[in-house]
Write a structure and sequence with these properties.
The structure holds 2 protein chains of 2 kinds. By secondary structure, chain A is of the alpha+beta class. Chain A has helices at residues 2-16, 22-40, 43-68, 77-93, 126-130, 138-149; strands spanning 19-21, 98-100, 108-113, 152-160, 169-178. Chain B is α+β, with helices and mostly antiparallel strands. Chain B has helices at residues 2-34, 47-62, 68-94, 103-119, 162-174, 203-214, and strands at residues 44-46, 125-128, 135-140, 179-185, 195-201. Chain B has a 4-stranded antiparallel sheet. In chain B, helix 2 packs antiparallel against helix 3 (68-94) and helix 3 (68-94) crosses helix 5 (162-174). The chains are: A alpha+beta, B alpha+beta. Chain B: It comes from Coemansia furcata.
Amino acid sequence: MEKQYKAIGEEAWKNNAEKINAELFIFTYGSLVVQLVKDYENYSAVNKQLDKMGYNIGVRMVDDMMARTSLERCTGFSATAEVIAKVGFKLFLNVIPTVANWSADAKEFSLILDDNPLNDFCELPPKAVADGLRYSNVLCGVIRGALEMMQMQTEVEYVRDVLCGDDVSEIRVKLLRMLDEEVPASDD
Amino acid sequence: MASQSQAQAQAQMHAQSLMKLDNKTSKRSNMLLEQNVSRPRRDRVGLGAFAFLFAEIIRYSQNRVLGIQDLEAKLNEIGQRVGVRMFELSMWREKTVHREMRVLQTLVFINTVVWRALFDKQADSLERSTENDDEYMITDNEPAVLKYISVPKEMSSFSPGAFISGIVEAIARCCQCPARVTSHVVPADGLPLRTVILLKFDKEVMDREKRLEAGK
């Protein structure tokens, strides 16, 4: 099963994804974060805004992913986790995080980001670390937004971040409930 | 004597506590410093990832400005921070010993080296304005970064290429050729996104050019 998702991700990346220079993308993201820090002058507000932008991206991105792959409906939350890591992250960022730390009730898991492109070239000033800036918080929003489109309401947050001195970066995804089919809320 | 050693001990303790505080993040700095940047660490990411991000950047900026001009200025600013970094990297990678200072060399540098670094191709053309000596145009027939951005009719004068012109503006400044850089969508047959980046060099730059030309 796991193998199959990996193959789908690789396939889609190789044949169906348009690509762009990674550094342009990385610098552009960095420039956006700088802009937000300047505009809000408050790191937790920046985290929130990044999450919001991520959410807006996620709700659209999931369609893009579906269009570029031949995925079928996930059989369960564990399959969902595998798809996020092996297809989603692969297709857009060309990295595959590790799925780990499942909770006993199988409703929570972690994505361990061994290699996060957004972090390249990035070093946070001590003040930002102390105040808890989550530089790549956009990823949390993306996952939350994408899962919501798949009728899953989730809570997604950074629990560890290498930019803040942790050994690894870890994003925790928690399934709150399954949503009924409904019209999506307005996104602005 | 005693007070001296006491002061010394105190200083040492202070330094130690500072180090402890710093140790966590300095690991990261060391890692960054030791990284070899002469070659890109990673090659590609999905264009989708960039396009969605760029769309969000435009949407975010749009909510914080009053008019199209402001919006372009905002995108220009975001582009400039990209340009400065791209410039440093390209300089380092090209192993060019000297930095370009002449207008023409700077333009060629942007047209070829920078474009290749950013968009994996050269810009499609580099022209000098026939009306003004200090104006030059770089044209890209199909800028990949703008591929999925569609501008609504009521904003038809808005050019999302302002982001690219910001990059160019920063690089021109880094080359000691400051210029006012704007972008304009000039569609051609089959090329709806064709974008012209217009550089108008500052007066000092043109004066310097004349002096250098005369001194030859």
